[in-house]
Amino acid sequence: MSKDSSQQAVLERASLRAIVLDAIAANSHLKGSLLPILHQIQNQLGHVPSEYVVDIADALSLSRAEVHGVISFYHGFTTSPQGKTVIEVCRAESCQAKGGRLIEAAVKQKLGVDYKQTTKDGEFTLEDVYCLGNCACSPSIRVGSEIYGRVTAESVNSLIDDLKTGDSQ
Amino acid sequence: MSFRVFVPQDSSAISVGANAVAAKLQELHPELDIVRNGSRGLFWLEPMIEVKTDAGRVAYGPVSAADVEQLIEQGMLEGAQNHPLSLGLTQEIPFLKKQQRLTFKRLGLADPLSLDDYIALDGFKGLERSLSMSRQECVDEVKQSGLRGRGGAAFPTGIKWQTVLDAESKGADEQKYIVCNADEGDSGTFADRLQMEGDPYALIEGMTIAGIAVGANKGFIYLREEYPHAHAMLNRALSLAEQANYLGDNILGSAHSFDLEVRLGAKSYICGEETALLDSLEGKRGIVRAKPPLPALEGLFGKPTVVNNVLSLSTIPIIFSEGAEYYASFGMGRSLGTMPFQLAGNLKHTGLVELAFGVTLDTLVNEFGGGSASDRPLRAVQVGGPLGTYLPASQWQSLMDYEELASFGAVLGHGGIVAFDDTVDMAEQARFSMEFCAEESCGKCTPCRIGAVRGVEVIDKIRTNNDHAANIKLLGSLCNTMESGSLCAMGGMTPFPVRSAMQHFGEDFGINPSDSNSSNEQAS
């Protein structure tokens, strides 16, 4: 590793930690502040880096095990870095009744990954989700904070192509 | 003259292109008065746009951005009805006309964030009335309405409120809480989302009345993370309501104060269970608590807490503005008032149908729902979410009423109705129920945590014809263990869809119809 890139890494770590400390400072006055803190970090970094669990634990007078226990309990938090774009495919009953299993297969094939995996180029993380509340327009997927209803294998494929080239949204 | 056009900003409408439609309208006619209303709940017609005419609002749908130019050329802005997407007067669309909307009386009529529109449509009348009543009178009003928890458990809301009113808060601060369960995780349900996005002030008003009634000055809305649009809408509504003094200190000049905050879940189905929800709000893992103590006595942070569903709380305003007797004049038996049913899955007409209790499932699925979207015969309908039973056609004449459904082991739950056509493999559905339970179990009870994993394995063996008869028997026994040995509905009700699939669709499990008697015995 060159000197430049190691300095870069130090800077990146410093800014990551700043984001974590900001999230703690912004929320620790709330009662039951752990989830709001984790949400803010997860939103900004795409994951909650394990090395900062200790900062959160110290700030809230919790043990590291307690904080880690909460992170690992919820599907919405992860300690692994996510791809640039997270694609969630609904696996629940209403989507199943409208061919959702075909959508699942199409997305997996298109991305070449299974659920909870990230593509090699770091572009996409694929997640399963149990209901997006869009059941009257099934089947549905979610990309970031956008929900897409009445999707087909074709429409999902072209959506992913658009995301790759940066055309969408 | 300026034309007024309504284009819903509901997330389902947006998911099928409503924003693109609005943008196209604006581009072609910058002078148009475009109102981004809530959805009317006729989702198969979304994006459904409406135009205000002298005769009333007329609708067009489903409209894509590509249709807009042609619609306008053919006179849409003047209300012309000669286009194939014309739907006539919105109020006359049978799906809507035949409904009895009480909780959802304002749905889709206006910009959900306009306080003026909310007030013009009877908003805050209930709150004003509650401010003139004693706490006990408020609680009595809810009791007399017959309202039962719409989240699924159907516990009488007034009795819950009475318990919290009577509870003495431990500690010096006398703190009590109102918690809204907006963790609408059941597949096939979207009424909470529709309510929060389409009429958020009704929820705020209902929670404020609850606070006044039981003496709580702080409320939380525990919202699932999967609802980003509802989150944004609620936060904007809270801020506007606070600016107008419908929230905050000394509401409308009264002695009552009420603060409200939205908190996000993190994709955990079990947090829809009220005690797991409370643990989650406290910043912990969402683990189900043993009861007693009841949350009404020792709830959030150990304080007396009302935990009600979005729909229960959003129904409070109309109970207070129109009176308990009016609300209780709908419904049947012990299921009074109306139920917002949600039609989903493989139906032609999907959406929200609010009706008095007592309608048949067949009416909902075939009359309102219009039969299958795929034009194949419908085979199974799951009522009440992922823990609800699968009903075969022979049970579709059942009345939708808490007690009637319970009489044969079914549940109404949160009112979700998911229809499947004859391509469904019910053994695969049963397997999914177990898989879902394994994924979402909080892990506290062994029958749920481990039983669900074993359930998947056993169903896999049945489906591959591995020691078939013994595994059919084992699955029945496993269901019994889960049902009787789990603390909450997650493990306790996962057997419902599994067993009903086995009982009514035994052929999908390789059960010979001629020994259906013995398989029923094993399964029950």
Brief sketch in words of this structure:
The complex is a heterodimer of chains A (169) and B (524). Chain A is α+β, with helices and mostly antiparallel strands.
Mind explaining what this structure looks like?
The complex is a heterodimer of chains A (169) and B (524). Chain A has helices at 3-27, 34-45, 53-60, 64-73, 93-97, 100-111, 153-165, and strands at residues 85-90, 117-118, 124-129, 141-143, 146-148. With 169 residues, chain A is α+β, with helices and mostly antiparallel strands. The longest helix of chain A is centred in the first third of the chain and has 25 residues, at 3-27. Chain B folds into four domains: 4-96, Glutaredoxin; 115-328, NADH-ubiquinone oxidoreductase 51kDa subunit (Rossmann fold, 3-Layer(aba) Sandwich); 332-421, Ubiquitin-like (UB roll) (Roll); 426-523, Up-down Bundle (de novo design (two linked rop proteins)), CATH 1.20.1440. Chain B contains 23 helices and 16 strands. In chain B, α19 runs antiparallel to α20. Chain B is globular.
Key phrases:
heterodimer, A: five-stranded mixed sheet, 7 helices, B: 524 residues, Glutaredoxin, Rossmann fold, Ubiquitin-like (UB roll), five-stranded mixed sheet, disordered C terminus
